[in-house]
Design brief:
By secondary structure, the chain is of the alpha+beta class. 31% of the residues lie in helices and 29% in strands.
Length: 137
């Protein structure tokens, strides 16, 4: 029986937007290990970047002294990304985002995240927020 290659890695960044480029490079490197098409890698990178940006803006209220932990577990069949922070709990735990018909700058990040991932699951334990993003192939 052939064993499926499973990759797991984590990264902790400071909650400053300048570190989001490190998240994108980190994701690209691990997702290339499972030979995903470039277009899918780009979608997943953009979605995780958006989720981390939301942590900085909303959970941490632009406090650049905090940290964000990103964990990735993946095989050729599934990618799971966990984003963890110790910021404020979100007001909208369903992460619906605003309506696409509401045309104005910003606020479409959740649409990008939901387009890239099959499941978006939020949980909070104590003071820790955890966002689980799942994409199956």
């Amino acid at each position: 029986m052939k064993q499926v290659a499973r990759h797991k890695a984590s990264l902790i960044i400071t909650s400053h937007p300048m570190y989001l480029s490190m998240v994108r490079v980190f994701l690209e490197k691990i997702l290339k290990l499972i030979d995903l098409p470039t277009s899918i890698i780009e979608d997943l990178k953009s979605a995780v970047d958006e989720a981390c940006s939301n942590v900085i803006k909303y959970a941490y209220k632009n406090d650049y002294t905090k940290s964000i932990k990103i964990e990735v577990e993946c095989t050729r069949n599934i990618v799971e990304v966990y984003i963890e922070d110790r910021g404020d709990a979100p007001i909208d735990k369903d992460f619906k985002g605003r309506e696409l018909s509401d045309i104005r700058p910003g606020g479409l990040g959740m649409h990008f995240i939901r387009k890239a991932f099959d499941k978006v699951i939020f949980s909070r334990r104590g003071k820790v927020n955890k966002l689980k993003l799942v994409r199956r192939f």
